[in-house]
Design goal:
single chain, alpha+beta, 22 strands, 30% helix, elongated
Amino acid sequence: MTANLIKQTDFDAIIIGGGACGLMCAVQSGFLGKRTLILEKNDKVGAKILISGGGRCNYTNLYASAQQFISQNEHFCKSAFSQWTVEDTIGFFETYGIEGKEKTLGQLFPVSDNAKDIVNVFTSLCVDLGQEIWCDTEVKNIEKIANSFVVSIEKHGKSEKLSVPKVVIASGGLPIPKMGATDFGLRAARNLGLKINETAPALVPLTITGKDQPWYEQLSGNSIFCRVWNDRISFEENILFTHWGLSGPAILQISSYWRPGEFIYIDLLPNQDIANLIQAEREANGKKMLLAYLAGLFTRKFAEALSDKLPADKNLASLSKADIEDISKLIHEFKVKPAGDKGYDKAEVMRGGVSTDELSSKTLEVRKIEGLYYGGECVDVTGWLGGYNFQWAWASGFVIAQNL
């Protein structure tokens, strides 16, 4: 095989990006007897797979459906999810030796807790199926010329042009640039005249600055099960206080639905009523100080921090109706106005991307450019935390492969 592809017959398609979507696309293409070439900028494929879930890879979610995805077209992903289901993902990986185990809220991890096992399935299958992978290869440009595409690349410092009938852009989004993330997919879309929906970090910690920061900073390391909500959605999971603000699963989830300048609200004691709890306790032990009582519900450190905002020096019996209303409001409607977020360095995914208006939901082919496909994170389909984004990546890779 020469490095310069002068014949279109060498490969049925070039796949730009060796992440979850690109790898699944290559393998599924191979099952159908099609030959693909993956072009990967990093020195190995699957970089984000390898770091996901703390290196354990939460590779799908048992409850994944279109409802857990954000897009300007909420129906767009339904076709892909009907073509490649969660059961398909589970069955695929089981076929190649990956047994799943459920953690919280439907999150599925390999029993081995090793993300490398996921990547190895794909790299082994690519070898078996004759799918080629070129790492350390940066795509510089894509041009549509007649019925083919010319893909300009730089490989080991040398510039080359490759000719191919079809191109798949599965180059990911902007998060974690140190892992090799770039804006290539978005730049290519703009160059080709495609509409981009506004992008932003998603599943990302939120920051607190100014006079409120010291209050959060003193609680750094404290984790509390809460309900976090705004006028769009609500999540019940842990939040984590940090020296710069808030993190933890519930905060990452709400961040995808938060916009700068808005408030979020936290119920620090979900599914219970602090007023009723205090009433019951004061009848049994009215002399107990509010601080001591709160320390029994939360950590001592957290109770002391809350006491800055409450009549903590009163015993329960002496709390007035107004006091209890203030306590209830603080505990059940803790109001936070984040200053911002931690950006793409700390974001799990990107919100927004190539507009779904530009793509066929059934094939993921660009409507006005025959032979060009977009899948994975560069498309305006963003899932919740917990394996949902991998399910979209596998599904979109599968769908594209069926149509190459």
